[in-house]
Structures are given as structure tokens and as C-alpha cells.
Design brief:
alpha+beta; Gyrase A, domain 2; Cyclophilin; seven-stranded mixed beta sheet; four-stranded antiparallel beta sheet; 13 strands; 17% helix; elongated
Length: 197
């Protein structure tokens, strides 16, 4: 773990990989009075400090607080119904030699971090995959597309370009400005996918 100042009111914590980030982010969820917000990414966590925080004390607390043994927020699992009808499903199954639907629904996924577009969560599973991105990205991926790339799965909240392998679709609203929290998935949220027809 490497911790460096990021301006005068933040610390950037550099970790080894996304699973280490998720474990530490979950462990730090107990909170520290000097932390206003934590923003996880693939290999870092940006820790925004309160006005009266002492960066050295917060840094020491971050180093001393153990990572969580179980990823995700306690008791919060969201089920997302998926029609496994994606245009890349057969190719992904053939490439990996796996029953991708069984693998996808057979584990609980955790939102490691959010980005790319509002409401898009990068989900990691307990049984990591390694799915190559498409050689030719699509100029338009429909909202609700359930896709895989690298070790991640995600759901496109809006129509956008994308290079992930589309394995299915959902009607779940990942981003809704009329909700108190517009994003359905936040870092630490656990997700269980369920196959529907």
C-alpha cells in the first residue's frame, strides 16, 4: 500500500489490484471522522478529507485498518434479472469453453468501482474470469446490455459505444435521476444475476 497526498485535502491510496481495492474499501467502511468520502477505482482509492482532518493520522488509520474478509456491504444484495440473449454469448462460451450463463449466475458479484458513464459499475466475481474485449468495439451498445470484459461484468445504464462482450440484457434501471440515489449500484453493492426468459 502506497499513500500519497492528492492536493491539500485528499490522499491517493495505491493498491495492487481491484480485489485489494474492494477489500480495503469495505474494511474502511467503518469510517474515520477525518474522511469525508472515498472513491475507489481499479487500483486506487481517493480519500477525500474533512476540513479539520490531519492527513498523517488518516494515513496511519488507513494503513492499520485491516481489509474486509468478505467484499460488499453487509446485507445488501441486489438481484438483476437477465435475458441471456446477447450477440456475443455463443462466441464467449466457445472461446472460454465455459457455460457462461452458469458461471455468471453462479456467483455473487461485487461493485468494485463506478465509472465510464453515470450508473456503470465494474463488478468483480468471486470466481474471476478473463474475457477479452471485442476486437471491433460497437459504436452503439443498447442500454441494459449485460457484458463481460477482462475480469469484470457490467450493465450499460444508457446507450453508448462499447467494446465489451454482450451476453444478455436486462430491464433494470441502473441510472434513474428520480431516485434519491440515481445509481442502482454503488461500490460495495453485491449483485446476484438471475436468468429469465
Amino acid at each position: 500500500m502506497r499513500i500519497a497526498p492528492a492536493g491539500d485535502r485528499a490522499l491517493l491510496v495505491d493498491l495492487d489490484d481491484v480485489r485489494t481495492v474492494a477489500a480495503h474499501h469495505a474494511g474502511w467502511a467503518v469510517g474515520h471522522p477525518g474522511i469525508a468520502e472515498m472513491i475507489p477505482a481499479a487500483a486506487t482509492v481517493l480519500v477525500i478529507l474533512t476540513e479539520d482532518a490531519e492527513p498523517a493520522r488518516v494515513s496511519a488509520w488507513l494503513r492499520e485498518t485491516p481489509p474486509a474478509q468478505v467484499l460488499g456491504r453487509s446485507g445488501e444484495t441486489i438481484t438483476i434479472d437477465v435475458r441471456y440473449d446477447g450477440p456475443d454469448l455463443d462466441e464467449v462460451c466457445a472461446t472460454t469453453g465455459l457455460d457462461i450463463v452458469a458461471v455468471h449466475i453462479g456467483q455473487v458479484w461485487t461493485a468494485a468501482f463506478c465509472g465510464f458513464s453515470p450508473g456503470f459499475a465494474y463488478l468483480v466475481g468471486s470466481d474471476p474470469l478473463s474475457i477479452p474485449r471485442r476486437a471491433d468495439p460497437r459504436t452503439s451498445v443498447p442500454a441494459g446490455s449485460v457484458a463481460l470484459a477482462g475480469e469484470y461484468t457490467g450493465v450499460y445504464p444508457t446507450s453508448s459505444p462499447g467494446g465489451w462482450q454482450i451476453i444478455g440484457s436486462t430491464d433494470a434501471a441502473l441510472w434513474d435521476v428520480n431516485r434519491d440515489d440515481p445509481a442502482l449500484l454503488a461500490p460495495g453493492t453485491r449483485v446476484q444475476f438471475r436468468a429469465v426468459t
